[in-house]
């Protein structure tokens, strides 16, 4: 059996709707163990990440690099692998493409957050950033949540046009917008998916807005203006993807907010009923967590390729 899967083979093991469900299931599995990830700063703003995790049957470690200098080049910003092991035998069962796992599980976590938290899932959805994560968010919100209309904003017009064209090939309606802040008035769903080198959103969201901010995962990175974060904290609520966000959520830390006091997605999933009746806009701040990679590894281990 071939255990080394390329990007396409990895994606085939991680279909969107089952991946969202697997992430949700992981949050209620008492056997899951996920230690803090190791983040090693390297030259020129690059990082090496080592992210292990396990449950009663599956163990995995994701080892990837993040190289921001590669933005806009033919070399990916994220490179590496996810090694998957059978707990009972200790045998390595799969090696998954790291960037594919990262891209798909990050977008799937946003969709799960929206499933539980978004006051309005009707769309249209604003996507800020037209790279790998922008495309993944279009795909998962369409496949898992039924969103049909998208607005695409990017500092590179050609990238935005390419993503809009991809969405149309999927049977969706998509258009490019020049002003992301202006588009907030029409979009109850928002995802910021940029390299997080500068503020890309500062406007006033709708009262029924759900914003998934996924680009910033270090204290120095930022996508959302501090005043926007503070306004949502005052008028609505902020939920983080995991407790690790307390020392990683650059958008929130730079806004001077107490991240440790904010609920995590696991807290929301553990509570009943679902929280869509909460008032005001919702900011879902995602920094990444090895648990999301473990969920992907679990699904990949039991999935058969669909194509």
UniProtKB/TrEMBL annotation:
GO CC terms in record: cytoplasm
Taxonomic superkingdom: Bacteria
Annotated Pfam families: OCD_Mu_crystall
Protein name (Swiss-Prot/TrEMBL): Delta(1)-pyrroline-2-carboxylate reductase family protein
InterPro entries: NAD(P)-bd_dom_sf, ODC_Mu_crystall, ODC_N
